[in-house]
């Protein structure tokens, strides 16, 4: 499909449902000024994350990959007043930008950004017996298969596990590079793991991508 048409369709949907308010626009602008890569979810994806979190009744959310906190804001706004969102970010600079954006959105009381290697932070959460109602994976793609295993350890029956960028403009079909091969393995596990009921929803931006949506249907094995 033509790239221009993809952008037009995405823009049309965003004009109807994107609902970007001042805090969300400011988060994008602050991230640009701070030199963060512009790889955050789109407004349409943000709205979808918000709807899924709200519809699932999530009270505890885990986000793997914070960047500037744009998706964090969408997710945290779906939480009840006593809800909690923990977001894991590798880089302190990114985490600082995200914390400012989250504070501006009035969500600091619900969100904690933890800095460090995601695998180490995930191991800590598992060691503490952490269980989450929704987990959103949007970090380094080569880590996706491992992040999925950690997510299952931190889940309960009914937990939603979401992951961005799982089609990569069709690169997963040929999987000629390391990143695409890792995402392809991740997608295969989603399809075959008996603990999960999953699907990939195509997403339109400047190219076709996808959001994986999985529901844990059995108690994860340790």
Automatic annotation (TrEMBL):
InterPro entries: Cation-dep_OMT, SAM-dependent_MTases_sf, SAM_O-MeTrfase. The lineage of its organism: Bacteria, Bacillati, Actinomycetota, Rubrobacteria, Rubrobacterales. Transmembrane segments: none annotated. One of its GO terms (molecular function) is S-adenosylmethionine-dependent methyltransferase activity. Coiled coil: none annotated. Keywords: Methyltransferase, S-adenosyl-L-methionine, Transferase. Signal peptide: none annotated. SUPFAM superfamilies: S-adenosyl-L-methionine-dependent methyltransferases. It comes from Rubrobacter taiwanensis. PANTHER family: CAFFEOYL-COA O-METHYLTRANSFERASE 3-RELATED, O-METHYLTRANSFERASE-RELATED. This is O-methyltransferase. Pfam families: Methyltransf_3. GO terms for biological process: methylation. It comes from the Bacteria.
């Amino acid at each position: 499909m033509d790239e221009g048409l993809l952008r037009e369709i995405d823009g049309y949907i965003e004009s109807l449902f994107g609902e970007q308010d001042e805090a969300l626009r400011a988060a994008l602008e602050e991230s640009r000024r701070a030199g963060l890569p512009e790889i955050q979810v789109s407004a349409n994806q943000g709205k979808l994350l918000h709807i899924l979190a709200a519809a699932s009744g999530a009270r505890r959310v885990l986000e793997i990959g914070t960047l500037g906190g744009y998706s964090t804001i969408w997710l945290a706004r779906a939480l009840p007043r006593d809800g909690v969102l923990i977001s894991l970010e590798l880089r302190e600079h990114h985490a600082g930008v995200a914390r400012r954006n989250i504070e501006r959105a009035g969500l600091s009381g619900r969100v904690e950004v933890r800095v460090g290697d995601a695998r180490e932070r995930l191991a800590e959460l598992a060691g503490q017996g952490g269980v989450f109602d929704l987990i959103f994976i949007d970090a380094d793609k080569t880590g996706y298969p491992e992040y999925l295993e950690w997510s299952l350890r931190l889940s309960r029956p009914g937990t939603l596990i979401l992951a961005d960028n799982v089609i990569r403009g069709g690169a997963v079909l040929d999987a000629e590079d390391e990143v695409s091969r890792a995402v392809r393995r991740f997608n295969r596990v989603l399809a075959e793991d008996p603990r999960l009921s999953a699907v990939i929803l195509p997403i339109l931006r400047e190219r076709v991508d996808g959001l994986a949506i999985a529901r844990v249907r059995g108690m994860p094995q340790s």
